[in-house]
Design a protein that fits this description.
The complex is a heterodimer. By secondary structure, chain A is α+β, with helices and mostly antiparallel strands. Chain A is built from 3 helices and 5 strands. In chain A, α1 runs antiparallel to α2 and α2 packs antiparallel against α3. The chains are: A alpha+beta, B alpha/beta. Chain B: It holds the Pfam family STAS.
Chain lengths: 132, 104
């Protein structure tokens, strides 16, 4: 049976650490190793950063952390402005870009990543990681 | 966890040594940027970052470091990172920063 922790966070930088810590606590309960817990913590942090920096959502967004037997599912949902996913390009790492690394990091650290977004209709990012 | 910077001028190395302690994230990146720019304005030298107690850094923190690196390069100076934790080395490698920054 799937059990979930759902929290609603203010769209403000100072609450991103709450999301990170909650996610790493649940990952630890599920038996992920230290490296995987750090991956999850960073991926959740990056997903929340994107909401706070880009979505213009107000006043809150939602984080859902679900435990399956051998998998953690993390959903970050905002009701902000959304974006055109087709216009997203992975960063050119040799160009030393100061921004745009967040989604690339999430995709590198999690096992699967789905993004549902539409201009004007918010964004939902669903990330999964398997317990090794 | 908050961010703390402990900065000193190292006379023997003629460099700034900066111990980064805690977390660099979306809420502390401005503090990092402001304190580094202040040091670089005071004296333009190489920077040695001691990361022994740096627990976490995200892409917004890396963005500050990249833009600061570009700033010090203008004066022909550089940045070095020491004692990074494995999770942070992994992030530097993932983003290609291990090829740009001197890591020891």
């Amino acid at each position: 049976m799937m059990e979930s922790v759902n929290i609603s966070l203010p769209c403000k930088p100072e609450y991103v650490s709450v999301a990170r810590l909650t996610a790493s606590c649940i990952a630890s309960q599920m038996g992920f190793d230290i490296e995987a817990i750090e991956d999850i913590k960073l991926a959740v942090g990056e997903a929340c950063n994107n909401v706070v920096l880009h979505s213009e959502c107000n006043p809150t967004y939602e984080l859902a952390l679900s435990k399956l037997e051998k998998q953690m599912i993390i959903e970050v949902l905002d009701h902000g402005k959304g974006f055109k996913f087709e216009s997203y390009h992975a960063p050119e790492l040799d160009q030393l870009q100061e921004s745009g690394l967040g989604l690339f990091i999430i995709q590198s650290l999690m096992d699967t990543v789905e993004i549902k977004t539409m201009e004007g209709n918010g964004t939902k990012i669903i990330m999964r990681k398997d317990v090794e | 966890m908050a961010l703390k910077l402990v900065s000193n001028y190292d006379e023997s190395l003629n460099s700034w040594t900066v111990a980064l302690q805690g977390e660099v994230d979306i809420s502390s990146k401005k503090q990092l940027k402001d304190e580094l720019i202040q040091l670089n304005t005071e004296k333009q030298l190489d920077f040695i970052f001691n990361c022994e107690n740096l627990e976490y850094i995200d892409s917004t923190g890396l963005g500050v470091l990249i833009s600061f690196y570009k700033e010090v390069k203008i004066n022909d100076k550089t940045v070095h990172f020491e004692k990074l934790k494995p999770s942070i080395i992994k992030l530097f490698t993932l983003t290609g920063l291990n090829k740009i920054f001197s890591i020891r």
